[in-house]
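Researcher: Here's the sequence for the chain we discussed earlier.
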Amino acid sequence: MRGRGVVASAAALLLLPALAACSPGTIEIEDHDLSDADRAACEAVVDDLPKTLGGELRRPVDPEGALGAAWGDPAYVLTCGVPAPSDYEATAECSDIKGVGWYVTDDQASDLGVDVTPIALSRSPYVELVVPSRYRTDGIDQALAELAPVLKEHLADGLSCL
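Model: Thanks. This is the structure I predict for it:
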């Protein structure tokens, strides 16, 4: 009987590296230079984000306490407090989803095979969500809609969108 336990334990130990390789790692969130008020607003957003987004479970981020979150593998990655996009112009169009205006660059909008990074420019501080290409056709609108109530609750009005 003791021999079976040793064999089972050895087999389990051999499987651990394979299981670890299949599990997603920690996602790094970039920190941006923010005023105290913007940092507090972003902290409130992160504290109130859902456990799932687009049907994907939330996962660890680095550093702990970062102004962002991640869900799924490949991961949706939200970062609060990002700068305005360099190519944004006052005449740019945004997609309004549940009262939040999301800006996407033309090159990302036209190519469904690439990851897309919508930025909530109608809220301040700005929030971006990296959406892997895998979720472009089914999950992007759902994910942005799920984020809208939290962003509207904790963030001030930002830029107007056309």
